[in-house]
């Protein structure tokens, strides 16, 4: 019996997925939440934020202007552009300090 020790050097670098080769995004159902500030067709893409205890799903982001939750049928990623219909603000999603996505207003 002999133990085989791993080599001390020459380990192959960890394989990293190439940029742009992202895994498929999760999809989400968007039930109508009764958000009345936009036409019926668009209501499912928004909901009211119920405060700091309101945990956002991966397909949700808060509009920094009007504090409405913007929802998508797919999970959000950094670089996504979103539009807040209630306050007509365009935003791009960026990764915050804690790794969560935050919306930055595009002026
Ligand atoms: Zn807004």
Q: Main attributes?
A:
Rubrerythrin, domain 2; 107 residues; mainly beta; single chain; binds zinc ion; three-stranded antiparallel beta sheet; elongated; 6 strands
What is the topology?
Blueprint: E1 46-48, E2 60-62, E3 68-71, E4 81-84, E5 89-95, E6 101-105
Antiparallel strand pairs: 1-3, 2-3, 4-5, 5-6
Given the helix and strand composition, which structural class is it?
Answer: mainly beta
Beta percentage is: 15-25%
Ends apart, CA distance between termini = 69 Å
Runs with pLDDT <50, length 5+? Answer: none
Describe the structure.
The structure is a single chain. This protein is mainly β and 107 residues long. Helices cover 0% and strands 24% of the residues. It has strands at 46-48, 60-62, 68-71, 81-84, 89-95, 101-105. The strands form two sheets. Strands 1-3-2 form a three-stranded antiparallel beta sheet, with no helix packed on it. The protein has a three-stranded antiparallel beta sheet with strand order 4-5-6, with no helix packed on it. Bound molecules: zinc ion. Residues 63, 65-66, 68, 84, 86-87, 89 line the site of zinc ion.
Brief account:
This protein is mostly beta strands and 107 residues long. Helix content is 0%, strand content 24%. It contains no helices and six strands.
């Amino acid at each position: 019996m002999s133990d085989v020790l791993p080599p001390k050097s020459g380990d192959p670098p960890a394989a990293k997925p190439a940029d742009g080769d992202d895994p498929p995004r999760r999809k989400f159902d968007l039930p109508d939440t009764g958000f009345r500030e936009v036409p019926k067709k668009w209501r499912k893409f928004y909901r009211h934020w119920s405060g700091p205890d309101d945990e956002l799903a991966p397909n949700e982001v808060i509009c920094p202007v009007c504090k409405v939750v913007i929802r998508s049928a797919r999970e959000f990623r950094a670089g996504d552009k979103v539009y807040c219909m209630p306050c007509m603000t365009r935003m791009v999603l960026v990764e915050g300090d804690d790794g969560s996505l935050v919306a930055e207003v595009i002026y």
